[in-house]
Amino acid sequence: GLNFFNDFNVFKEVKTRYPNYSQPLYANMLRSEHIGFNLFVPFKSDLEFCKNVFNEFLDGKIKSIDRIEIEYAPSPAERYLNDKTSFDTYIEFTHTDNQKGIIGIEVKYTEHEYKLKKNSKQETDILNKKSKYYTISEQCKLYKPNSTDKLISDKFRQVWRNQLLGESIVIKDNDKFKYFTSLTIFPKGNKHFIETSKEYLDMLINKDNRFIPLTYENFLSTCDKFSPNDRFEKWVKYLRKRYIIE
Predict the structure, then answer these.
(1) Distance of alpha carbon 7 from alpha carbon 204, whole angstroms
(2) What span, in angstroms and rounded, lies between the C-alpha atoms of 209 and 178?
(3) In 109-236, at which residue ranges do the beta strands (DSSP E only) sit?
(4) Best label site of 102, 106, 141, 168, fewest CB within 10 Å?
């Protein structure tokens, strides 16, 4: 449990979500599974603070934060993207127009592109032009023509799938949700995601809070800006020491 910040019930949240011991999550400091818990569980203790931080990136459109889940995928999977894609962190909010929205967060550290596994369900779905990947891409009306030719590549595929998971929720549960923002957070030294994010944004017709690339440095500076007390300041200091290379 020493992989986790020792406050805000972070490790309790880990044990609730994953009660069976997992060495990569519980104890491996060189992997990134723990990062979502350290970065986002503390927000559950102060939803107003959470709102203030995320409003910096969503143009002040958040009226309230309503729900925060770590490692979340909607169910049943068949209703949505029909694969194992999940959000590292999932946030439901009320927009300033009183409609409901979602933020789906993917946390990266040293990761780069992901190779497509041969003979996997994902490969089958990529090769099948009638799969959910293609139908949702068309229905959400987010991408410029012929973008899927690039989106299926190793460089963009995971960013694309994260986007599609959220878009599928808005499409299928349109009586409940109107907005979705896909947010990818990574260190400023991860040049792969800086480049990938720029090229991905160029494929979008609508860039209005649909995809937001965000560095740890910018995120933590914003947390510092709105920190409500010493307890949260200690948390931000820990995150800086743990994840930022000066």
Answers:
(1) 40
(2) 13
(3) 177-186, 211-215
(4) 141
Judged on CB neighbours under 10 Å (0-12, 13-18, 19+), 139 is: middle
Residue type, 220: L
Task: Give the chain's radius of gyration (CA, Å).
Answer: 18
Token pair 């307890």: residue: 231
Separation between Cα atoms, residue 63 and residue 11, nearest integer Å: 29
SS (H, E, C) 203-216: CECCCCCCEEEEEH
Give CA–CA dist 203/201, Å, rounded. Answer: 5
pLDDT tens-place string over residues 196-244: 999 999 999 988 999 999 999 999 999 999 999 999 999 999 999 999 9
| pLDDT tens track for 150-176 | 999 999 999 999 999 999 999 999 999
Q: What is the DSSP string of 72-93?
A: E--SSGGGTT-SS--EEEEEEE
pTM of the prediction? 0.96
